[in-house]
Amino acid sequence: MAVETMTVEVVEAAAATAGGFKAIGAGLAVGLAGMGTGLAQLGIGGAAVGATAENKEMFGLALLFTVIPETVVIFGLVVALLLLFT
Amino acid sequence: MFKSQRMSKLLIAASKDQLEPVVRELYRHNVYHIEDFVEQEMESIEGFRIGKPIEGASGISSDLLRIRSLSNIIGLKKGESGTGAVQKTKALSASIDKELPEIEKEITALAEQKNGLENKLREAGMKVAELEPFAKLQMDLSLLRGYDGFTVFAGHIPADVELPVNSEKYFTSEVHGNLLVAVVPAEKTSEVDKFLMEEGFSTIVVPSEDGTAEENISRYDHEITRLHEEIGKIEEQISAQKEKHAQFLVACEELLTADVERAEAPLRFATSDETFVTEGWLPSKKVEGLISDLDKVCGGKVYATELEVDYEHDTIPVEYDNPDFAKPTEALMDIYSRPKYSEFDPTLLVAIVFPIFFGFILGDIGYGLILLVVSFGLRKFVKDNVVGNQLLNVLRNASIMSILFGIAYSEFLGFACPWDPLWISRHFNIGAGHGGHGPDAILLLIISAWIGILHITLGRSLHVRNAIVEIHPGKHRNKVVFAQLGWIFVMWGILFLLWSMFAMPLMPDLSGFAPLVAGINIFGIIGALLIAVGIIGIGRESGLELMELPTIISHVLSYARLAAVGLSSVAIAAVTNYISIGMMIEPAMADFGLLSIVLIIVGIIVFLIGHILNTVLGLIGGGLHSIRLHYVEFFTKFYKGGGKKYEPFGIIRKFTED
Question: How far apart are CA B590 and CA B583, in angstroms?
Fold first, then answer.
């Protein structure tokens, strides 16, 4: 009897830990990917603002260049969603 | 639709005495895009030179300059429209010479008065600034100057000091930077000067006023108030002038701008001693009307004919040809690049797909309504700005789509609506008491992937279409077509391979068939074959392109943002609702007390800030990501752009008529 309760508790605890690790993993996936995107956009964004200041017609193209690294954080977000909801 | 308007090339030649009527007629029609004449480039019409402006151009220009400077003085902004009647050009141009000098006299006199008063105001302000350090010194300022045997030191110092010589000293720390005034015998001047310098003393000028500083300051303050009042009166007079003359000035500006543009048009023509020639473009359907009207005004003394278009060398200006609902999207196209003349014009596709993407991401009735209101509310600020209005129309269409998707998702500001979501649920069901499962994230991701696969396949197919239309039949064209088909084959090959191995929701399940070779079934083999053929196709066009193969996967995955950005927006809304209502307002209501009122107020603030923030994020997320999917993932597959904008010679008149 005692052994059985123990087992149920252990399984529950293990499940909770697994859930926690999933959450941490999801957080890391979005957070680190976001930092990567940020680093990439740092340079592009600066150059894009400079180019737009020189020539307003560059705005569309500059915006385009700036959002290209955003794909990285989207990948992070996708991984996080997969972790949390599967 | 899918093509820009058909353009024709027109050549107009006549003797110089017909120059004015021809220019006037071209300007009136507002359809003729002048091809600027460049002396060196056009060898075919040798001996021609660039024309000279029509007589009187400089006079009109200077009139225009005067009007613009007047508009500037009275603060009449460009595009600020008067509400009066449209004025007749003849009457107007007659009244310009008569009325303009008078108006100019009135307005410049007012402006000069205002300038004079403002100068006085500045001077008074400077005097006050000079006097302020002495404000606490209860002494006639005239006592601080005019000595032969003594030197007066006055200035700021960090702290009070004892001077090393016999002196009269005053110190106060009540003014900014402290004030030290010291009177020392003239022969000790250099000694004291050195000492004070070491103490960090900085000299200030003793104001050349009589009486105490305080008296003087209050006198100047009175003066400043009086000046402000007077300036206010003048400004009132100026704005009265604005009311009175705005209508006249905007009409004049329009008239004179038109005159100047007409007068300068010959600068873009080729002229000889007696004749002029001009080439230009206009929509084909308008050629006949223009030629017959030109004939009429010149009494047949003009030669106007349609030239054959040389598609290799001519840069044909591009004017969109879209159904009305797709017109606003042209602004989004121009931000990227206008299509070339012979190119496929994807505006209509963007006009349809962009709002769907936007709605898919921001599918929420509440946010949709807010953005719909915003799109109408901002119209006041963009006024006549064409691009601004177009973008607001795009936003309007997108927010309507957002409301429709919101109904399907059953969402209102992150809350669930009373009905069940149709097919897909994005509800997070945060907090206790719900017990339901989270959003259908996997379903959403797979739908996004499907959208990506189809969108990219469409893009590549359009490249094939462009290649067939634009490139001469031959080896090169075959290579391009085969390479583009190759990209499609590789993508679908990968899909077949995946389907033959895994069963996925919303995707065909081909994993159940018996394996043929090495555990791969027939569909897997088809997939592998497609990939192989595709790679050969891509490699035949350019080996380097093979490096880009991973983009097949990354571009499809990039469409996952449709699901991911949307879910994050729902999550923010749900969390905002949970914090503000679930954690603050509901408990406060349940156990009502004095503290509850505070909690409820804080809850409402959190609710408002959270949703305002999320609306802005939703606009950026929904708009920027949707358009980016078009620009980066879709357009790079087939679209080149770089077309020249069609800019007809003429203006749309608002304040004047013939």
Answer: 11
* Number of domains composing chain A: 1
Q: Measure in Å the smallest separation between the Cα of B337 and chain A Cα atoms.
A: 9
Instruction: Inform me whether the C-beta atom of residue A81 falls under 8 Å from chain B C-beta atoms.
Output: yes
Chain B contact for A78 (CB, 8 A cutoff): yes
Contact B407, B400 (CB under 8 A): no
Quick check: ipTM above 0.85? no
pLDDT exceeds 70 at position B213: yes
Range(s) of the domain holding residue A10: 2-85
For chain B, the structural domain boundaries read 131-219, 324-423+560-642, 443-555
Nearest Cα neighbor of B135 from B161, B167, B172 is B172
**Residue B518 carries which DSSP code?**
T
Each residue of A17-47: pLDDT tens digit? 888 898 899 999 999 999 999 999 999 999 9
Q: How many CB atoms lie within 10 A of CB A3?
A: 6
Closest by Cα among B343, B288, B280 to B314: B280
Residue of A nearest to B440 (CA): A85
Note whether A23 contacts B: Cβ–Cβ < 8 A: no
Cα distance from A83 to chain B (closest Cα, Å)? 10
> What pTM value is reported for the model?
0.78
Residue of A57, A65, A78 to mutate when probing chain B, most B C-beta within 10 A: A78
Residue A75 maps to which CATH number?
A: 1.20.20.10
Strands B644-645 and B317-318: parallel
Q: Percentage helix, strand, coil, to 5, in chain A?
A: 95, 0, 5
Residues of A in contact with B438 (CB under 8 A): 84-85
